[in-house]
Design a protein that fits this description.
Elements: H1 2-14, E1 18-22, H2 26-38, E2 42-46, H3 49-56, E3 63-67, H4 75-85, E4 91-95, E5 112-115, H5 121-133, E6 150-157, E7 163-168, E8 175-178, E9 188-191, E10 198-203, E11 212-213
Parallel strand pairs: 1-2, 1-3, 3-4, 4-5, 6-10, 6-11
Antiparallel strand pairs: 6-7, 7-8, 9-10
Helix pairs in contact: 3-4
Length: 224
Amino acid sequence: MASLICEARKVKNKSKPTVLFVDDEPCMRELMAMILTEEGYEVFTEKDGFDALAHLRSSVPDLIISDLQMPRMSGIEFLSVVRHRFPAIPVIAISGAFDMQEFSPAQVMADAFYPKLRCNPDELMRTVSDLIHLPLARPTNCHPLQPPKVQTAKHALDRNGLPKLLLTCTDCLRVFSWTGGEGSREIQQAHCRFCMTPVSFVSDLQSPSSAVVSTCDPASVPAA
């Protein structure tokens, strides 16, 4: 009987809507995990955008709530990556630095915004429930942006005129430079300098002397 109860609980837990909460403040993660759990959600928490993207490699939640002001990767950049890679996931942006008048959907790719200073958890829980159970007001069938598993590296020159290769991380979507190895059509691998995700690539064998000079290492995601 005990084993049957355990199995029943497992099935019940699997049916719970899942929420990923991302915030660099431990007290906020603890508080929101408690509130969301009491409301019947299965909650996962991460401290910044990079850790949240690592979580998304193995588990895709029904909803993401993210702070906008975080170290390493801001919530604005993280939510942009989420919108490009996981367009069907509804997202709530939260912040203590902005109010409703300052929030701009064109700058932050979120389906809703909640100021931390509002202190009205019932309102936030209604928004969570609506976004999970009701159709979103935006298209969700667009093709997710995903760099190829084996990409063709582009040649460039650094500020000192030395050759380098430019690659796009398949996880955080940032562009990073790589100077190891040699030009070859054989598959090579480099790790993203931002999130350490392995990226497989081949060289386009273009002559470095004809590459465009880059004065800095780009670190950007697709424009909103």
